[in-house]
Fold:
Amino acid sequence: MAQISGVQSWCLGVTIQLVLAAALLHQGFATVAPPTAAPHKDLGKPERGNYRVNNSNNTACLLASMGLQLNITFNSDSQNKTVQDVVNLDPNVTKSSGSCDSDSAYLRLTTDSEKTNLTLFFTLNTTSNKYHLSEVSLTANWPDMKVPFSAHNRSLDYLRGTLGYSYMCREEQTLAVTQDLSINTFQVQVQPFGLSGNQFGTAEECQLDEDDMLIPIIVGAALAGLVLIVLLAYLIGRKRSHAGYQTI
Ligand SMILES: *[C@@H]1O[C@H](CO)[C@@H](O)[C@H](O)[C@H]1NC(C)=O
Ligand SMILES: *[C@@H]1O[C@H](CO)[C@@H](O)[C@H](O)[C@H]1NC(C)=O
Ligand SMILES: *[C@@H]1O[C@H](CO)[C@@H](O)[C@H](O)[C@H]1NC(C)=O
Ligand SMILES: *[C@@H]1O[C@H](CO)[C@@H](O)[C@H](O)[C@H]1NC(C)=O
Structure:
């Protein structure tokens, strides 16, 4: 009897310690993950906007839900030098427009009083049925800019998805456009081709998200394995003490 309760309490103690260790380990990983904020100001994450482009018969041909942050390097009028500014795109004052063709589509986002125009071009490869963000253009005319800002890159390869599916990335991503412009995206879901019924197709998760989900899966699997070992140890212990009891 004493042997059984000894094995039992040992099992319980080990299980609790392992669960605690796994929980701490996971927390440790989680606190490493969030990206560091802008060094010069605490901006916070941009609000997520829902944007839509319609085709000629008024159904959606491009859908996008995302938070966008622009990181621009420009010549400041007041400081008389090159400065770097990070600005969140506010969906409440952003209008969307655009157009869709069979193998190309674009989404144009224009902010309040047309001080910022951002255009995202998507291309569909009709052989492989894969699409991607291929081109980005930005013009901006902010109060402190010495001259209006303009950046354009036609050879990009971001947000890769499959025709009929939407591209999804919950994690923050940085899209480098030119030396003077990068765009931080937050909680992106986008589909520039192959929509049906004004809705996103099944989501294809980005690699960053899959990596992030891998840690809980590994911890979970390890825990399940340990619980099994502890259970086996307990059963073996019980059987042994039972056998001992019978010989008496
Ligand atoms: C903005 O871009 C600069 C230069 O590329 C970089 O050092 C900085 O970390 C970026 N800031 C954010 C918040 O992305
Ligand atoms: C389209 O995809 C095919 C097959 O993956 C590839 O061989 C071809 O180069 C791609 N075309 C373009 C324009 O990228
Ligand atoms: C943005 O686009 C509108 C409409 O084409 C234009 O009138 C405006 O000047 C543009 N703004 C900038 C900063 O280029
Ligand atoms: C456009 O993007 C590509 C791929 O990121 C990069 O190699 C190229 O230097 C960029 N072009 C310009 C003009 O910044």
